[in-house]
Amino acid sequence: MSKRMLLIGSGPAHLEVLRSMAEGSWQGVDVCLISPSSYYEHKGMLSGYIEGIYSAEDIRVNAESLLARAGGQFIKKIPSVVYPRQKKLVCSDDTVYPFDVISFDMGESSLLKPSEGTGIERTADPLYKQIDKLKQTNHPLIIGGGTSGIEVAFAMQSYKNNRNIPGDVRLLTSDKTWNTSSPLSNRLRSLLTKRGVRVWENETADIIEDSFILTNLGNKVRNTGVLWLGGASKAGIFDASGIAADEEGRVLVQPTMQLKNFDYIFAAAGHVTGIDEFSHAKKKGSPRKQETVLAENLKRFLTDEPLEIYRPEKPNVSIISTGNQKGLRNYGPVSIHNHRHWKIKNKQDQEFIHSYT
After folding, report:
1. Is 191 helix (H, G, I), strand (E, B) or coil?
2. Distance (Å, whole) CA 324 – CA 194
3. Which end of the chain is more exposed for a tag (fewer CB within 10 A), N or C?
4. How far is 342 from 328, CA to CA, in rounded Å?
5. Are residues 192 and 199 in contact, defined by beta-carbon separation less than 8 angstroms?
6. Could you tell me whether strands 327-331 and 334-338 are parallel, antiparallel, or unpaired per DSSP bridges?
7. At 217, which helix (H) or strand (E)?
8. How far apart are CA 230 and CA 321, in angstroms?
């Protein structure tokens, strides 16, 4: 008898699951991918799209097409709540989907935007369409000081500067810019300010109205539209499902990529989840990419085989796109800002996209 597996969100870990299934090594599994979009949009290339370097097709993977090769079913809906003990998922239109195993890889998607009581409605619009509308306005506001938020702010301001579009981009982050060491954070903030971006650090959006947001420190940040790139929020699906999450809305998973209390619920660590570091610290072994471990463990779980342990790889040297085809690369206490590093990042991003097409 076949088992039913639900994949919630078309994030990169789920692309790896579908690629593995398309190779034909999975047996007795009915897979459904539930997402408001049939595409995975690579956040690392959004800045290039904003500046006109890439087309929409260049920066995304057709997850529905990959799913078809895996013999699965695509359901274009917004998941709202999961009932773990009953093994049921409910979508925003009240349709119910039972499952034997479920996996979450939503990334920085509209599934996690604040909704009720915040003034921002959930949307199934692709990020690039939201960006197309915002970049023409005078004062777009980006919420989120991670890599995606910073790169989008740089690119959107560069787009405006290069076309003499009036106004400035605004960036609100709950931590320091890029949540990193002081020297790099300071340099990023300096580059953003020099480009023309206005930055609010260590503040969160408490009240969101049509033309402004009010921060937790009482600052009123006026804007002509909001793009939420802040990752998880307490209004997300885990909170709605009564699944314990931290103050940022992130749910902890074990090093097997499973929730501690529900072994049939998996999630990719990152924007929506965090690894249980205590249990992880007790394990030894070679590092593996979480996408590979999640795909392998879903397959093993369905066949009652022992699961692998996820051990993070050593962090790669990061390159942040700063607009106008320049990249900032960090080497410990030293950072280098030039066109060469943007070219390296461009090559890496395109190789990632091509690996799933």
Report:
1. helix
2. 14
3. N
4. 8
5. yes
6. antiparallel
7. none
8. 18
Contact 181, 209 (CB under 8 A): no
SS3 for 266? strand
CA distance linking residue 249 with residue 157, whole number of Å:
30
CATH 2.60.34.10 fits 127-230+316-354, yes or no: no
CATH number given to 3-112+232-302: 3.50.50.60
Per DSSP, the residues of 287-347 read ---HHHHHHHHHHHHHTTPPPP---PPPPPPPEEE-STT-EEEEETTEEEEEHHHHHHHHH
Distances in whole angstroms, Cα of residue 236 to Cα of each of 57, 107, 128, 138, 175: 28, 12, 22, 30, 20
- Structure tokens given for 192: 């953003």
Residue 282 makes CB contacts below 8 A (sequence gap 6+) with none
* pTM confidence score: 0.83
| pLDDT tens, N- to C-terminus, the chain (357 residues) | 789 999 999 999 999 999 999 988 788 999 999 998 889 989 889 999 999 999 999 999 999 999 999 999 999 998 999 999 999 999 999 999 999 999 998 755 433 344 344 444 444 567 788 899 899 999 999 998 888 899 999 999 999 999 999 999 999 988 766 655 567 788 899 999 999 999 999 888 888 888 999 999 999 999 999 998 865 454 478 877 878 776 666 678 888 999 988 999 999 866 455 665 533 333 444 446 888 999 999 999 999 999 999 887 665 567 999 999 999 988 767 789 999 999 999 999 999 999 998
Q: Please say whether the beta carbons of 113 and 123 come within 8 A.
A: yes
How many CB atoms lie under 10 A from the CB of residue 251?
A: 23
Letter string b/e over residues 296-333, b meaning 16 or more CB atoms within 10 A of that residue's CB: bbbbebbeeeebbbbbeeeeeeebbbbbebbbbbbeee
Provide the 3-class DSSP secondary structure of residue 269: coil
